Amino acid sequence: MILKDLKIIDIIQDGRGVAKTIGKTVFVENAVYGETLDAEIIAEKRNFLEAKKIKTNIKSKFERKPPCPYFYECGGCSIMDINYDAQIELKKNLIKNAIKKSTGLEIQDIEIIESPEFRYRNKIRLQVDKDGGLNYLKKYSDEKVKIDNCLIASDYICQNLPQIEEISREINEKFDGAIREISIRTNNKDILLNLYGHFTKDCQNYVRKNWFNSKFYINLIDRRNINVINSDGKLDFKIKDKTFKISADDFYQVNQYQIENLYGVAREFLGENQKLLDLYCGSATSSMSINDDHIVGIEINKNAIKDAKENAKRNGLKDYKFIAKNAKFIDSKFIKENRIDAVTVDPPRAGLDKEVIKTIGNAGIEKIVCISCNPQTLARDIKRFMDRGYELKKIKAVDMFPQTMHVESVVLMSRK
User: Fold this and answer.
1) Which contiguous run of DSSP H or E holds residue 17?
2) CB neighbours of 265 closer than 8 A, spacing ≥ 6?
3) What is the DSSP string of 168-197?
4) pLDDT (average), residues 207-228
5) How far lies 116's CA from each of 43, 290, 316, 359, in Å?
6) Which residues 6+ apart lie within 8 Å of 209 measured at CB?
7) pLDDT, position 231
8) How confident is residue 65, by pLDDT bands cut at 50, 70 and 90?
9) Residues 6 or more apart from 39 whose CB is under 8 A from it?
10) pLDDT tens track for 267-290
11) pLDDT at residue 139 in the model
12) Are the C-beta atoms of 53 and 81 separated by less than 8 Å?
């Protein structure tokens, strides 16, 4: 069935356009924000339809020619075909609509700190084919798109892609497609390669023999095992006046231009002279950037906690404690014994566990600063805090992911 003259009024996080037809919302693949189009229905659900564009009738005033030759196939970017001002407005609406839907709060406007549009990522993750070629995945598919450049990756990563591919091709040709994925992370001086796959002892020894003296730091990651090939498998990063050691599987913000802005907003919201509990603290890059000292950090990743302790020592902290536990480990007694004044959280996309919110609320914490990359789960968590006597005091966004519908938000919740 063909739907005629649909007006694309919004874009959702996976990049599909949003249109309205009689009684239902339509999600349209490959739609451009602001255009009017014809679409073919590919699935009918109870409350919405899924469709794909077959013809543009009226072009969008926001449309531009994507500067990347892979855009129409590659799933890495979803909104490169509209101008950056329109991208920012879409992200504002995404956050405002999510908060209104969950809480009923009407936010008139949200400040978003803008980013350079391209060459901002210090890390990319690529699929590796059987021959060792480097790929992204196609839109809405598990098929691979061969790439030799990426406009949102840092220049330093892209300059080194040919040499990186030489490594992956040689390993996969000799060891029957051992590498399945590769992540490439840089501090613009060194590059850390995490190779994911199945690596026999012979393969490990071969990589160690041939690339021990490589200019790249290489880790072979097989299920839960990390085999460090050379160096210590870590990279050094600097945020303002602090330096951090980041291991293979540590979380670190990917936008090299916006890290200081993101943590600067959180620091501004938190204020000074706080004893801080940082949940999901990772290797403590956020903790120490937001609060110079007086930190208790909780993180389930044991390797990240080791790095957090090392980072605390190298930056001269005097009052800190980092614990390798699930965030649900904390309780009111723990918060009281550690004399916690405020809490920061930067959870995964799934957001906060409701038991964690209950614990924080019961402990009577005055200030909570939430950093989130998912407006839907952030809005849900704001509502749960509101139900426990908190109010939304401040919100600001930081565009960490140009050319996509992802956006980072920082909110301050205060007890009424």
Assistant:
1) strand 17-21
2) 113, 396, 398, 410
3) HHHHHHHTTS-EEEEEEEE-SS-EEEEEEE
4) 93
5) 37, 23, 33, 39
6) none
7) 81
8) very high
9) 2, 3, 6, 19, 26, 28, 31, 51, 52, 53, 54
10) 999 998 899 999 999 999 999 999
11) 86
12) no
pLDDT band for position 23 (cuts 50, 70, 90)? confident
Residue 47 one-letter amino acid: N
Neighbours of 67 (CB within 10 A): 12
Whose structure tokens read 């924000």? 33
Q: For position 383, what pLDDT does the model report?
A: 98
SS3 state of residue 66:
coil
Q: What is this structure's pTM?
A: 0.94
For residue 139, how far is the Cα from the chain centroid?
Answer: 18
C-alpha pair distances (Å), 410 with each of 112, 242, 344: 10, 22, 10
> CA 384, 106, 398 angle in degrees (round to 5)?
75
**Shortest CA distance to 94 belongs to which of 374, 351, 392?**
374
How far is CA 135 from each of CA 29, 149, 177, 383, 385, rounded to the nearest angstrom?
21, 10, 14, 40, 42
The stretch 148-152 carries a mean pLDDT of: 97
Phi, psi at 247, each rounded to 5°: -85, 180
Q: Nearest 5°: CA angle at 134, between 131 and 140?
A: 110
The whole-angstrom separation of Cα 121 and Cα 285 is 17
How far apart are the two ends of the chain, measured CA to CA in Å?
A: 53
The CA R_g of the chain, rounded to the nearest whole Å, is: 23
Q: What is the residue whose two structure tokens read 């001269």? A: 316
24-58 tens-digit pLDDT: 999 999 999 999 999 999 999 988 999 999 999 99
For the record, the structure tokens of 109 come out as 């406007």
Beta strand residue intervals within 254-359, DSSP E? 276-279, 295-298, 320-323, 342-345
Pick from 257, 266, 255, 274: which is nearest to 290 by CA? 266
